[in-house]
Design brief:
Elements (H helix, E strand, L loop, with lengths): L11 H14 L5 H13 L10 H8 L4 H14 L5 H11 L5 H31 L9
Length: about 140
C-alpha cells in the first residue's frame, strides 16, 4: 500500500521530493503497485512543477490494462490541469495516433463532473486537439 501524504500542505521542495518518490513507483513491474500509486495521485494530487510524473503517467495512459490506463488518465488530469492545460493538450496530441484516446476522454469526463470549473480551460484545449483528427472528432 502506498502511504497517503497530503501534498497540499507541503512546501514546493517537499512536493518535488514526493514526486521523485512516486515517479519510479509508476514504473514498478507489478501493475497493482502502479494502480495504487495512480489512485493516490487522484485522491491526493501532487503539484509537479518539475514534471517528474509526466512521462511515467503518459506511459501508463497507453497501458494494456484498462483499469491502469483509466486511472492514469484521471491522475494525469488531477496533476496537470488548469494552468497546465497546454501540457494536457500536448499529451492528448501525442497519444492520439495510438487510438487509445477513448479511455483518456472518459477519464476527463469523469473528472469534469467534480471539477468542471477547474478543468474547463483544459477541456477546451483537448477538444481543439480532437477536432484536428477526423477519426476521433465524433467523440466530442
Amino acid at each position: 500500500m502506498v502511504t497517503r501524504i497530503p501534498s497540499n500542505s507541503l512546501s514546493t521542495s517537499a512536493q518535488a521530493k514526493l514526486s521523485a518518490i512516486l515517479a519510479p513507483l509508476l514504473q514498478h513491474p507489478d501493475p497493482l503497485v502502479r494502480i495504487d500509486v495512480l489512485r493516490r495521485c487522484v485522491s491526493l494530487p501532487v503539484t509537479d512543477s518539475q514534471r517528474q510524473l509526466q512521462q511515467p503517467l503518459i506511459q501508463r495512459l497507453t497501458s494494456a490494462f484498462p483499469d491502469e490506463s483509466f486511472t492514469a488518465a484521471q491522475a494525469f488530469f488531477c496533476t496537470y490541469s488548469g494552468a497546465d492545460g497546454e501540457v494536457v493538450a500536448a499529451t492528448v496530441q501525442k497519444i492520439l495516433p495510438d487510438r487509445q484516446i477513448q479511455t483518456t476522454i472518459n477519464a476527463l469526463q469523469s473528472q469534469a463532473q467534480w471539477r468542471r470549473s477547474q478543468l474547463l480551460p483544459t477541456i477546451r484545449l483537448v477538444l481543439a486537439v480532437l477536432a484536428t483528427d477526423s477519426l476521433v472528432s465524433s467523440l466530442r
